[in-house]
């Protein structure tokens, strides 16, 4: 689908192959076991944890969107990330993980990989390139969740290539519609599809995408043996959701931009981060590498009480962790131990009408 816009690509990724008499929409195939051919060498689906036709539809759609040769579906983002790390971060290697990114990735590295003999280095987005100079495997997240600093992926990939180290990029926040890490030199994309791709706050899913056949085969083997698999119905729902991902993500980005502009000038706001704001410290890098600036805005209010009052006074905001759904959600990140001030909140913009959500937040802040 080269040369087409993102909504055209997401719609067409969802199985619109014209076969007369076949359904237009994707179809789930719920099955754990498959009829076996007497020709034992014939490639086929045998057992649901190894491969199945519903995953294949989803995986080819995700690979297409990420510009990857292949993709692997997982039961959650953490399922995908931990599988990639188990394969790449072997005992004796040095792994860099984001100090300011998704906190459970840090916990996995510290609690599971470190005792196995992996040297785990935590680096904030701004220190990623420096830390990569001493690493075998680098996991970068951009924009980093929740502070929304943007990592210069082209520069980071150049450093990793010169050291022959492996660069993994967590593309959850930007989505493949906002950022194509593989085209900027990353070796592997990992992501939670729970967020904007599935987009309805009703399921968990994750994926790995890449173009190194040996690496993808090793991760597939890990999925088979460790078993963090995605259910068939969830795979089908992600696939179904991908059809509207272009529309939803466009609206989320537009709402985020409008809310960020309003917050920037609001007296109750100490600071706001959005890579799309020209005065944002990450704006220059974001313009270079991102196609959309995303649906997340980070804001600092006076204290924890101010964040709770914002939600109470609002008619539209939902207090919830996670992001990328159709509702606008607010999450006070210090609640989860993120290294941010008490009044720091991540706002995940939904798909409400832009004027409504801007007016609602503006009113609730005063
Ligand atoms: C949510 C999230 C994850 C984990 O995904 P799950 O689907 O919840 O397992 C990983 N990375 C980032 C950046 C996330 O936001």
UniProtKB/TrEMBL annotation:
Top-rank taxon, per record: Bacteria
The entry's keywords: Amino-acid biosynthesis, Lyase, Methionine biosynthesis, Pyridoxal phosphate
Modified residue annotations for N6-(pyridoxal phosphate)lysine: 195
An annotated GO cellular component: cytoplasm
Protein name (database record): Cystathionine gamma-lyase
Native source species: Mycolicibacterium diernhoferi
Family, as annotated: Belongs to the trans-sulfuration enzymes family.
UniProt enzyme class: lyase
GO molecular function, one term: cystathionine gamma-lyase activity
Requisite cofactors: pyridoxal 5'-phosphate
EC number, UniProt record: 4.4.1.1
Gene3D superfamilies xref list: Aspartate Aminotransferase, domain 1, Type I PLP-dependent aspartate aminotransferase-like (Major domain)
Quaternary structure, from the entry: Homotetramer.
GO BP field: cysteine biosynthetic process via cystathionine; methionine biosynthetic process; transsulfuration
């Amino acid at each position: 689908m080269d040369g087409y816009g993102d909504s055209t690509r997401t719609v067409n990724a969802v199985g619109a192959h014209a076969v007369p008499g076949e359904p237009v929409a994707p179809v789930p195939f719920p099955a754990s076991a498959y009829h076996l051919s007497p020709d034992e060498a014939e490639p086929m689906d045998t057992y649901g944890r190894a491969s199945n036709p519903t995953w294949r539809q989803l995986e080819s759609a995700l690979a297409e969107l990420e510009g990857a040769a292949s993709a692997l579906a997982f039961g959650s983002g953490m399922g995908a990330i931990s599988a990639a790390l188990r394969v790449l971060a072997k005992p004796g290697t040095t792994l860099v993980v984001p100090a300011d990114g998704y906190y459970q990735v840090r916990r996995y590295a510290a609690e599971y990989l470190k005792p196995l003999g992996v040297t785990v280095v935590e680096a904030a987005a701004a220190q990623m390139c420096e830390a990569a100079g001493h690493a075998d495997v680098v996991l970068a997240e951009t924009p980093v969740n929740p502070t929304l600093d943007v990592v210069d992926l082209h520069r980071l990939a150049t450093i990793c290539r010169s050291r022959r180290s492996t660069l993994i990029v967590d593309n959850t926040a930007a989505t493949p519609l906002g950022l194509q890490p593989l085209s900027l030199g990353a070796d592997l994309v990992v992501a939670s599809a729970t967020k904007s791709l599935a987009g309805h706050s009703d399921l968990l899913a994750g994926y790995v995408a890449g173009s190194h056949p040996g690496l993808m085969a090793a991760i597939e083997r890990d999925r088979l043996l460790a078993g963090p698999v995605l259910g068939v119905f969830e795979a089908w729902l992600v696939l179904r959701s991908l059809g509207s991902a272009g529309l939803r993500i466009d609206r989320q980005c537009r709402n985020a931009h409008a809310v960020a502009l309003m917050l920037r000038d609001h007296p109750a706001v100490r600071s706001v981060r959005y890579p799309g704001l020209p005065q944002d410290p990450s704006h220059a890098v974001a313009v270079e590498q991102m196609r959309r600036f995303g649906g997340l805005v980070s804001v600092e209010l006076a204290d924890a009480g101010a964040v709770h009052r914002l939600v109470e006074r609002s008619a539209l905001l939902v207090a919830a962790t996670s992001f990328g759904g159709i509702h606008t959600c607010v999450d006070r990140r210090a609640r989860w131990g993120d290294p941010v001030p008490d009044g720091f909140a991540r706002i995940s913009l939904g798909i409400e009408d832009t004027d409504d959500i801007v007016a609602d937040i503006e009113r609730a802040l005063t």
